[in-house]
UniProtKB/TrEMBL annotation:
It comes from the Bacteria. Its EC number is 3.2.2.-. Pfam families: UDG. One of its GO terms (molecular function) is hydrolase activity, acting on glycosyl bonds. InterPro entries: MUG/TDG, Uracil-DNA_glycosylase-like, Uracil-DNA_glycosylase-like_sf. SUPFAM superfamilies: Uracil-DNA glycosylase-like (SSF52141). This is TDG/mug DNA glycosylase family protein. CDD domains: UDG-F2_TDG_MUG (cd10028). The keyword GTP-binding does not apply. Residues 7-151 form the Uracil-DNA glycosylase-like domain. NCBIfam families: PRK10201.1. Keywords: DNA damage, DNA repair, Glycosidase, Hydrolase.
Length: 174
């Protein structure tokens, strides 16, 4: 199964980075398309979107200044199917995408995604103090997967820090 297309453009306010597409996303060609994934609800209730979008609308979030990519492009049923080699290659490609497109904030959708990207083990939710690419704010949020054991309210609360971070970066860029 082929990977799904990134939704990228220069100077995004926010770039979401996931592990890799689900099989459902691979089948549909849209990010966070698994019906058990709570991504679209989370970003709406966190104040990032004016309404709850559907996966088929993922490309329209570029109009809001939000993009999508993954550390690995190959769809799988679970992240544990990703190989070490895929992570190594994906890490290189992701760093290049961030350097090329220069998003103001990169939101890693899951601690494990950021661990693979940064090669760090001690990671906390929110803005990271030591960044891999210093010009970009690196934000770690819980995975939106329905398998996450955190209460949805806790997850939304962490994501709800993003609107003010984005607003602050927009003020600095003006």
């Amino acid at each position: 199964m082929e990977g799904i297309l990134d939704h990228l453009k220069e100077d995004l306010d926010l770039l979401f980075v996931g592990f890799n597409p689900s099989v459902r996303s691979g089948e549909t060609g849209h990010h966070y398309a698994n019906p058990n994934n709570r991504f679209w609800r989370i970003i709406h209730e966190a104040g990032l979107t004016p309404r709850k979008y559907q996966p088929i609308e993922d490309h329209t979030l570029l109009e809001l200044g939000y993009g999508f990519t993954n550390i690995v492009s190959r769809p799988t049923k679970a992240a544990d199917e990703i190989t070490k080699e895929e992570y190594i290659q994906g890490r290189k490609e992701l760093k290049q995408k961030i350097k090329t497109f220069k998003p103001k904030v990169v939101c890693f959708v899951g601690k494990g995604v950021y661990q693979q990207y940064s090669q760090k083990r001690n990671i906390f939710w929110g803005v990271q103090d030591e960044r891999v690419i210093p010009e970009t704010i690196e934000f770690v949020a819980p995975s939106s997967s329905g398998l996450v054991r955190m209460k949805i309210e806790e997850v939304i609360n962490i994501y709800s820090e993003l609107p003010s971070i984005i607003e602050e970066t927009q003020r600095r860029w003006q």
